[in-house]
Design a protein that fits this description.
It is a single chain. The protein has 199 residues and is α+β, with helices and mostly antiparallel strands. It has two domains: 97 residues, no CATH class; 66 residues, no CATH class. It is built from six helices and five strands, in the order H-H-E-E-E-E-E-H-H-H-H. The protein starts with 6 loop residues before the first helix and ends in a 7-residue tail after the last helix. The relative contact order is 0.17.
Length: 199
């Protein structure tokens, strides 16, 4: 039975691309495999940090604790302020400092009331959509080949495959996020104050 690709599949794809033997697990201390894992994680973080429909929680309610701090989950990479209805709130700017929400406008990590925000999460490889896994694998394979063996004729082919995988990922995102030109055009969104993403 055909199943979605796993991180082990991705690691072995990188290894076999440079003529190394595949591994049976991700915990063995094999240098080449550990480098492959690092490259895959690097690409995954880079891709997910952009924010997609499958790793963004819209208008999350964030409540201060008894010390008026709001702790953010460790796998959240970006926080965009919204109002209670989920519309972009241009009067507030948030970032994350020391695992806590930080208000860049007032320059404080203290919050008197609850706030709302869009949260961008970093998920494990096996929790990603298949299109994202495929792009990460191919882009990581290109980077891995470049680091391990340097310039090679096969790298152009791998890069072309990665480009096609990214196009497929963007198409899949368009379908899943129900995007359209009125809601998702930054200029029309700004003019009409519509919420990005149509949520």
């Amino acid at each position: 039975m055909l199943t979605p690709s796993t991180k082990l599949d991705a690691v072995n794809s990188l290894l076999t691309a440079v003529g190394e033997y595949p591994v049976s697990n991700l915990v063995d201390d094999i240098a080449e495999a550990q480098i492959a894992i690092q490259v895959i994680d690097e690409v995954s973080r880079e891709l997910q940090s952009r924010g997609w429909s499958w790793n963004t929680r819209r208008k999350a309610k964030l409540t201060p604790d008894t010390n008026n701090n709001i702790f953010v989950p460790t796998n959240v990479t970006r926080v965009d302020a919204t109002d209670v209805n989920g519309w972009n709130d241009r009067t507030q700017r948030f970032t994350i400092r020391n695992s806590k929400l930080f208000n860049m406008v007032d320059f404080t990590a203290t919050f008197e009331t609850e706030v709302y925000a869009d949260l961008v999460y970093l998920w494990d490889f096996d929790d990603l959509p298949e299109e994202a896994r495929r792009f990460i694998t191919l882009d990581a394979q290109h980077r891995y080949m470049n680091r391990v063996v340097g310039a090679d004729a096969d790298m152009a082919q791998v890069q072309a495959q990665a480009s096609r995988a990214y196009v497929a990922l963007k198409q899949d995102e368009g379908k899943n996020a129900d995007r359209n030109v009125l809601w998702d055009n930054p200029l029309s969104n700004y003019i009409s104050s519509r919420h990005l993403g149509g949520y």
